[in-house]
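Hey, resending since the last one bounced:
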Amino acid sequence: MREAILVGIDGSIASRAAITWAIERVRGIRAAISMLFVVDDEWGTISDRDLVELRSSAELIAARELEFAREKAESTAVTVGVAVGNPMLTLAGEASNFMMIAIGTHKVGAFHGHALGSRSLQLAAMSAVPTAVIPISAPHGRSGVAVGVGDAPGWLEPVRFAAVEAARLGEELTLVRSGAPTLASDDGVLRLVAELLGAAELTCGFSLRRSASTAGESLAAISGRAVFTVSGRPSVPAAGGCRPLGRTNSAVLMNAGGPVIIVPHSIEPPWPTRAAAPSSAKPPFRESHGAVEEAAMGGASPRDLRPTERGGAAGDSVHD
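The structure tokens again:
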């Protein structure tokens, strides 16, 4: 796995929000940024001639976005590449080679009900690594790192991720629980988290916030004030990282008031699974060298933070 963040780009304002966030995220920890523009081939229905034109347009946009990133990145290593395929499937597949993937979203504020086809939801459901969804508007004056705490197996792994981030940023960690106390009492949660965070060097400490609202509403509300909000997504090895987001994560992403990171975490399946058939490894996307090519500007490694539609042809948005 590369010590880098993959950023899905398309030249939109949302795309640039994700680029800017990723650069700030790796600043000081010597990680790199890799950007990827995916030309939508409409499941192979686009003619070769049209695909050549779309790819040419995508390379121009990628070169422009590389220049934008270089102006902000200072000593951070930045590369860019262009691929062809279904945008979200391609990004999710390539993300497994990175420590995290980031994508921008135009959605800001409350949205009640369900919306189908949201690209950030698709990516977060398929990615095997943490997925950062970055809104175009994230006001200054934010503080703290928030993380949802539940009773599902593996819930400590997203908390560990959030704790490492809070320690790195020098921010307080807020544990968010919704509804009435269940099998795991608040005192029990605090005790488990205190043991987990013994070596996390949380200089600003941590606290637990109980909410009478649903988990999704509680996390969406606090996301408007937090530096970023973390929510876990249970997964199983046999699923290859792909598993439904669930009601909570869908609600958070559709109503987020700030950056949200969905962290997949492992749970043991309740049924025996067959050994996966061997498959040939697919090499990561080819990063260009030159105008749309690789622009090296320094880079190296933070701690590994991971626990254990039709879309955009060139010029179309791969973001929400």
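Residues 2-266 form a domain with the Rossmann fold fold (CATH 3.40.50.12370).

Sorry for the duplicate.
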